[in-house]
């Protein structure tokens, strides 16, 4: 069961990380990275961030680059949320492949 505090932090992190990724992907034309889901642990120390990456062929490459730069992303996030959070959670990134799954089901149904 998710507490009210967790859901507020989830929304805050999703909004701020979305803005960070939007600014970074403007430098890479033809690529779109959006934050689809954020889940914070009950003790607020770890955040699982699910990224939706387009085109999906570059997903592994982009996820590896994001994981390599996780500390700098956390630092930039800390600068943005410094008045709302005392401690910024550790960030772990995952690929959200739900859109590919939906597309696959759609094509199977259309056959």
Explain the overall architecture:
There is one protein chain. With 111 residues, the protein is α+β, with helices and mostly antiparallel strands. It has a single domain (4-110), classed as GMP Synthetase, Chain A, domain 3, CATH 3.30.300.20. Helices cover 50% and strands 22% of the residues. Strands 1-2-3 form a three-stranded mixed beta sheet. A hairpin with a 5-residue loop joins strand 1 (32-40) and strand 2 (46-54). The longest helix has 22 residues, at 4-25. It is globular, with a radius of gyration of 15 Å.
Mean pLDDT: 91
Unreliable segments (pLDDT under 50, ≥5 consecutive)? none
H/E series, N to C?
HEEHHEH
Under the CATH scheme, the architecture is: 2-Layer Sandwich
Q: In this structure, how is the largest beta sheet organized?
A: 3 strands, mixed
Task: Summarize the structure in short.
The chain has 111 residues and is α+β, with helices and mostly antiparallel strands. The mean pLDDT is 91. The protein has a single domain (4-110), classed as GMP Synthetase, Chain A, domain 3, CATH 3.30.300.20.
Tags for this model:
111 residues, 4 helices, three-stranded mixed β-sheet, GMP Synthetase, Chain A, domain 3, single chain, alpha+beta
Give the secondary structure arrangement, pairings included.
Blueprint lengths: L3 H22 L6 E9 L5 E9 L4 H10 L1 H11 L9 E6 L2 H13 L1
Parallel strand pairs: 2-3
Antiparallel strand pairs: 1-2
């Amino acid at each position: 069961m998710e507490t009210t505090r967790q859901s507020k932090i989830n929304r805050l992190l999703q909004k701020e990380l979305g803005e960070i990724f939007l600014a970074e992907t403007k430098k890479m034309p033809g690529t779109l990275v959006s934050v689809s889901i954020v889940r914070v642990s009950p003790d607020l120390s770890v955040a699982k961030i699910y990224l939706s990456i387009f085109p999906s062929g570059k997903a592994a490459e982009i996820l590896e680059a994001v994981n390599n730069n996780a500390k700098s992303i956390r630092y930039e996030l800390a600068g943005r949320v410094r008045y709302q959070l005392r401690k910024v959670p550790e960030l772990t990134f995952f690929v959200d492949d739900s859109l590919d799954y939906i597309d696959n089901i759609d094509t199977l149904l259309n056959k």
